[in-house]
Write a structure and sequence with these properties.
Shape: globular
Number of helices: 14
Strand order of the largest sheet: 3-2-1-4-5
CATH architecture of the largest domain: 3-Layer(aba) Sandwich
Bound molecules: nicotinamide-adenine-dinucleotide, prephenic acid
CATH superfamily of the largest domain: NAD(P)-binding Rossmann-like Domain
Helix content: 40-55%
Length: 372
């Protein structure tokens, strides 16, 4: 690819080359943009350079855009420093909270006519430059949390960054952003963590029965505690409000379960017990909530699932993917499940619903066992 394929002219300076910074840098390098890398850790800069994410800073650098990708606690002070060090650059950051950062940048008296915060709703539970991926942002929402002191013309550089990385731009105020992510990201992190904590002292025999449900619920519980203390602390009010709603529902479920446990057998058999209705309503509410989550690429589209049994031998998964490619199948998603002691893995693949029958027959014809 060449630089002409990017909207940004560059150079772009990335400050903080962990997961987010390295992913942004790799994505821009793939479009030919000149990327300057900076981090408090010289080791992280070296790793990111070795990865092909960009070059080290020079005295004569005149960045068009600076993207601050450091932990939330230090984001405002780094923004203030960068605005002052590069008086012609537009500055954005990618921290997971927006209102407290804008407030702190304003309070420091910095030039907010060149600063607008942003936040890609894309990430992983693993940080550091080695987790960086050029395609991390493809099809993901990326919020620009605007404010009245920056002009559209100046903020356009941030829009260009988002579009160059293949993300979809969403405009919100900082407050709308923070209350939205309290619901979609920050409270879910706590719920996932609380469930995962139940496993710490559980018997090994029980934990070994872990299936897809537990893995889905606990994936983000592996995230960096240091980063999340900062995120939750900075968005405490809005996150607590969501969690109070969760607590109310949980109290209802506990009451229903307690009634169910106490119920006489014949009472349970009538089907009319109030606890049964409470549980059914709660579970249906969950169905209705999940149905509102947009699919991949932000479309409200559901995919058909197919589970293929993959022998636990080197190269088998690669063979499955190659053969799907040979059959012209576009995978919308792929998830692997592997139980301890099992000689097979389950590859759960998502395809467009209209292609499900064709894909199933093509795989069966090649001898793959379809589990569901
Ligand atoms: N992890 C995610 O999924 C995710 C997603 C969206 C946004 N974010 C936000 O992106 C930011 C970075 O998160 P990450 O996951 O990339 O973290 P990370 O730990 O992978 O990377 C942070 C980097 O910042 C560097 N750093 C720390 N203090 C610095 C300073 N004062 N000056 C320069 N460099 C400094 C660290 O050395 C490290 O390389 C955070 O604000 C986070 O809220 C994270
Ligand atoms: O680990 C992931 O899958 C994430 O996408 C992480 C996630 C999220 O909750 O959506 C976490 C925090 C960030 O601010 C943005 C993204």
């Amino acid at each position: 690819m060449t630089g002409s394929e990017s909207r940004l002219t560059g150079p772009v300076r990335v400050v903080g080359v962990g997961l987010l910074g390295t992913s942004i840098a790799l994505g821009l390098r793939a479009r030919g943009v000149d990327v300057i890398l900076s981090d408090a850790s010289p080791t992280n800069v070296r790793i990111a350079i070795d990865y092909g994410a960009g070059r080290s800073a020079g005295d004569a650098d005149e960045p068009q855009l600076i993207v601050v990708c450091v932990p939330p606690d230090v984001t405002a002070s780094v923004i203030v420093r960068e605005l002052s060090a590069y008086p012609r650059a537009v500055v954005t950051d990618v921290a997971s909270v927006k209102a407290p950062i804008l407030r702190a940048v304003r309070a420091a008296g910095a030039d907010v006519t060149r600063y607008v915060g942003s936040h890609p709703l894309a990430g992983r539970e693993k940080g550091g430059p080695m987790s960086g991926r050029a395609d991390l942002f493809l099809g993901r929402p990326w919020v620009v949390a605007g404010h009245p002191d920056i002009s559209y013309q100046t903020a356009a550089a941030v829009d260009d960054l988002i579009l160059d990385l293949g993300a979809s731009l969403v405009e919100m105020t900082t407050e709308q952003h923070d209350s939205s992510v309290a619901l979609t990201s920050h409270a879910p992190q706590v719920v996932s963590t609380l469930m995962a904590r139940r496993l710490v002292s559980a018997p090994e025999a029980a934990v070994n029965l872990a299936g897809g449900g537990l893995r889905d619920v606990t994936r983000v519980a592996s995230s960096d505690p240091g980063l999340w203390v900062q995120i939750l602390g900075a968005n405490a009010g809005a996150t607590a409000e969501v969690l109070r709603g969760v607590r109310d529902d949980l109290d209802e479920v506990l009451a229903a379960l307690s009634a169910a446990a106490d119920a006489q057998e014949d009472d349970a058999a009538t089907g009319a017990a109030p606890w049964r209705r409470t549980l059914a309503e709660t579970l249906s509410g969950g169905n209705a909530g999940v149905a509102r989550i947009p699919g991949k690429h932000g479309q409200d589209r559901r995919y058909a699932q197919l589970v293929v049994m993959v022998d636990d031998r080197p190269g088998e998964l690669a063979r499955l993917l190659t053969e799907l490619g040979e059959d012209g199948v576009n995978l919308e998603d792929l998830r692997l499940e592997h139980s301890p002691g099992a000689q097979i893995g389950l590859a759960e693949i998502a395809v467009l619903p209209e292609t499900l029958d064709t894909v199933t027959s093509a795989l069966a014809a090649r001898g793959w066992r379809i589990a569901g």
